[in-house]
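Lay summary

Proteins are chains of building blocks that fold into shapes. Our project writes down both the chain and a compact code for its shape. Here are two examples, one after the other.
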Amino acid sequence: MSRPVIPVDNKCSRCLGSTCCTYTTEALGPLRSKADFDHVLWQVSHDNVEVYRDDDGWFLLIRGRCEHLQPGGACGIYATRPQVCRDYSNDWCEFDEPAEKHFTHHFRSHAELLAYCRERFKRWDA
């Protein structure tokens, strides 16, 4: 059963937990070489750091709640929030469906990404 379509201007008021304010992502660019992946192995070795790939490329995902998120989900600095927050559009957001649904790869740990690297690069350990 699919969720009903909710007007964009009403989604935030119905979202529980302000999902979009509990992580950040950063584009990594293309990952092609062993050196590229070795660097990402270092990154994903840290707490709350993950890496994923979707149709737009590779991204670092850092789980962490925004320090300005108030109880109930409101922004504590709404009038002076950063430009990236002002530019955010919820035309599509995780209230509609989880972003993970569109990940082609998702690694939550060094061990998970290392297994992928060893499969992708047959001579990884050489």
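And here is the second example, written the same way.
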Amino acid sequence: MSLKQYLQADTALSRMYQEIKAAGALRTVSLDLTHRCNIRCKGCYYFEEGMDRYATSEGDAALERFIQREKERGTNFITIVGGEPSLELERLRSLYQNFKLSVATNGLNRIPYDGLEDLPIGVAVWGDAKTDRYLRGNDKIDIFSKALDHYRGDNRAFFYYTVTPGNVSQIEGVVRRCTDNGNKVLFNYYSDLSSLGGAFDHRMGFEEVRLEIDRMIECFPGMIFMTPYFNKVISSGELFGMKWGYEVCTNLSTNLEQNAKRFENGMPYNKHFRAYYADFVTTRRCCTGTCRDCSSCYDTWEHFSWVMVNLRKHLASRETFAQWLTTMYLFYVINRLVDQDKGMKLLTSYILTHEWDVVRS
């Protein structure tokens, strides 16, 4: 069957596809809004690879030049990272006025509502109170509780829960605290870049984590920004016989000569993408690395792109097409590119009545 036939056969899929089409294609970049941060998380890729050495001394003028260049280049969506974006609110507002955005924050400071009313905010949490305090709070600061207070009932904010492989038993408790706070949850998967070992070692694999996240999708319907299919792709690092790594990564800076051979290997990639440092000019290899081994990358945003650009492989059956489309639609829902409340209801209904059995078979 063709894409057209799949859509004609399923009204829910047709509605998702039409909403995505109406929202428009994305031409994306990632940007470090600042090189500064107010905490030092164990395993943070930004500081592990010294990305904070790239900073601008020109402040707002450099940012304005960046905005103008990217608008002329056709960029319409920016993933804001850092450093810690809440330390540069005026920069954040400037970008918000010119592009669709998604921002990741550690939660220690609240990103205000005024002037940023429709901004998707991913608030980090890395485990229960004890684990999160150890990994992010230097065993002293309860950042998770502070973040819950800052974003209670804030419909812009979802918790971006980075799960460590040996702490599966914490997942439900963390999810419950977030959802009781009025916030949805998107999962990420911890990479042990600080070589802590033990429960934090990504080399243990994420099979138990995957199963527990699948259970969360069932137990907290409408509150988990995840599908069983996408969960399986990230946690296994496998997609249609491909193994995740540099040779298949789709979010690589296309203006860097070091990536040229990758772009010649026939694997699809995001042809517009660039990952900018906090000087607003220099680009690095990819979103989350300069020279790290890509096998340690379980980053959710990177894997979104991997699925999204591989439409052709997903056209083999109605089931695989549905898995591609629900992943694509989830990205648009999380980032408020479609109506989030209505979109989440549609997606949840579809996952719980269709995709679940396909993934488990």
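What can we say about the second shape? The first strand starts at residue 28 and ends at 32.
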